[in-house]
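Weekly puzzle thread! Below is a chain. First person to post its structure in token form gets bragging rights.
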Amino acid sequence: MFDKLFINVGNVVLMLYNFLVNFRFPSFKSSKSSEDKGFGISQISNENNNFFNKFRENFINNFLSKKVLAILIIFALILFVFMGLEISLMFIVLCMMFYIFMRFYPQMKQKRSYSDLNQELPYALRHMGIELKSGKGLHDTLMTVANANYGSFSRELSRVLERVRYGESTENALLEMSTRIGSDGLSRSVQQIVGTLRVGGNLANSLEVIADDISFDMHVKLKDYSQRLNAFILIYTFAAILAPVILLIMLMAASTVMGDIVPSNIIIVMYVAFFPMVVVFMGIFIKKLEPEI
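Winning reply:
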């Protein structure tokens, strides 16, 4: 009974974590009538984003202030007096989790925005190689790939072309994109393109070789991840199923002989808060082990 309880609680917390990480405000294209009025639905989305950013900044700046901490401590004490230690601890943990989420939301959002780049990069590089072999120049090739459906990579190339259009050199724009994203495969590709612009060379063949290397690295990372995941399943099974059940049986057997060894409040905290948090931690750890492909 208890193993299903805390596993379900852990699943709910993981669902909330995935929702918060993947949360984004909806964006809509403004209609023609709204453009005539000078006010579109996209402006509402921008206002929502600005409101959230202002709320986040105010929350981070004021959360650790003495007044806010005093209010939270008083409220936690009220919960402790009227509803017990468990509810008070859950309130404190939720406040800490919400603060951590608000603190690292920009990093999570930036990482999520480039999550598909490594997957699309080999196909985009092969596309660039074919375009270059057909006789197109580099700028025309970049424009073609930018207009193609390669996710965040196409968006970043559009940003590069926009910067070049306003006077920045192609080398600096590409290097700035590589520094901003921080992908190994993209860095190798950009270095190859910049080197070709400076000293010349067969860029098409080089991009295809880099694409093949990236694809091979993806297969190696997937194989290594599957092997580590198989070993991690045993640890997860013990920590999430066997350990709580064995502990409960041992406590029941000891209580029949020696009386209550552990207070009931501590047992409730363990099975309502501690073990679900272990499941959440292990789920997040497995998520972190996933290769960025």
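Puzzle host: Confirmed. Bonus trivia for everyone else. The mean pLDDT is 75.
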